[in-house]
Structures are given as structure tokens and as C-alpha cells.
Design a protein that fits this description.
Blueprint (H helix, E strand, L loop, with lengths): L1 E4 L5 E6 L5 H14 L14 H13 L3 E8 L2 E10 L8 E8 L8 H16 L4 E7 L3 H9 L3 E12 L2 E11 L3
């Protein structure tokens, strides 16, 4: 568990998710997907039952190359990050992360703190050697954050998102983890 002081003066707690919190997470994800067009799913599209979410959180807790962390202010879930590592021997050292923060908390440094936690965790595992991400090409705030944290541009995938009748490209970025 880590504590940090945010730009708004509040204390942020970052810790691993617990399977008993699956309902709290699903409530959170339903709220966050209604607030942003930057996700790979929209309102009502997440499509995971509470039972499946319990299984998912439990599987990440057991995995040496998977992570799910929550950002909390008091008891309120305000952000989350999931890193999924590869399941086969040749790709176990790499994976992709996804991150969300409630809109009312954008700009306070929560995303930065979640990503720093993940990077430190990856280094500590000594297993994770590459962190990947994808982001909508027009999400300049996220792109700036990833660049600031030393993620490197690796390519563009055209038409990866289709939202409200429009196509959007995605930028793929990565960070190599070395000793």
C-alpha cells in the first residue's frame, strides 16, 4: 500500500484490488465509462458479471505477471490500473496496461501515481521486461503523461476505435524495463 499527497491536498491510497471488491469495481467502471470516450468500451459495454470479475481479480492476485491496483481517496474508488502479462513462456515478460480515473479527479496526478506504482512493481518482479499501452491518437493529455513517464512511441493503428459513427486511430507505446 502506498500513500501520496495529491495536488488538491487530499491523500491518495494505492493498493492491490481484492476480489471482495468486485461489486465496488463494477459500480466504478459503469460510472467511468459514461464519462469518457477514451476507453475501449462505452456505457453498458463492459459486459463482465460480478462472478467473472471476482475470478479475474483473483487470477491477477495469483499471477506473477499481472496486477490490478485501486486508487482511493478515503473509501471512494477514484482510479484503477490493470496490467495483464502474457500467458505463454515466450511472452510472459511483456504485457499491456489499462488505466481509468474518475473525471472529477482528472488533473490531480492520480494517473501518474498509478503508473509509477506499476513501473516500480514491474521492476521488482524482475520478470516484466516490457510494458505496453494503447491510447486514442487524439487523447493529448494521456499522450503527454505517457511521454513524461518515458513511454516511447511504437506505432499507429488506424481505425482501432469506432465511436458514434467515427473511426479513431490508436497510438501504441511501450517502456522497456532493464536493470
Amino acid at each position: 500500500m502506498e500513500y501520496s499527497r495529491l495536488k488538491n491536498g487530499k491523500t491518495l491510497i494505492i493498493r492491490k484490488a481484492q476480489k471482495e471488491e468486485s461489486s465496488k469495481f463494477l459500480d466504478y467502471i459503469n460510472k467511468v465509462c459514461a464519462e469518457s470516450e477514451n476507453l475501449t468500451f462505452g456505457q453498458g459495454e463492459f459486459g463482465i458479471t460480478e462472478e467473472k470479475e471476482v475470478e479475474f481479480i483473483a487470477s491477477l492476485a495469483k499471477a506473477d505477471n499481472g496486477l490490478m491496483i485501486f486508487a482511493l481517496i478515503g473509501d471512494e474508488l477514484v482510479g484503477q490500473l490493470v496490467f495483464n502479462g502474457g500467458h505463454r513462456p515466450r511472452i510472459r515478460h511483456t504485457g499491456e496496461f489499462s488505466i481509468t480515473v474518475l473525471k472529477e479527479y482528472w488533473g490531480f496526478g492520480i494517473g501518474t501515481e498509478l503508473i509509477k506504482y506499476m513501473i516500480n512493481w514491474a521492476k521488482e518482479t524482475r520478470l516484466i521486461r516490457k510494458i505496453n499501452l494503447r491510447v486514442r491518437s487524439d487523447n493529448q493529455i494521456a499522450l503527454n503523461l505517457y511521454k513524461r513517464l518515458n513511454f516511447k512511441f511504437e506505432g499507429t493503428i488506424t481505425r482501432e476505435f469506432f465511436i458514434n459513427g467515427n473511426f479513431y486511430d490508436s497510438i501504441h507505446m511501450g517502456m522497456e524495463i532493464d536493470d
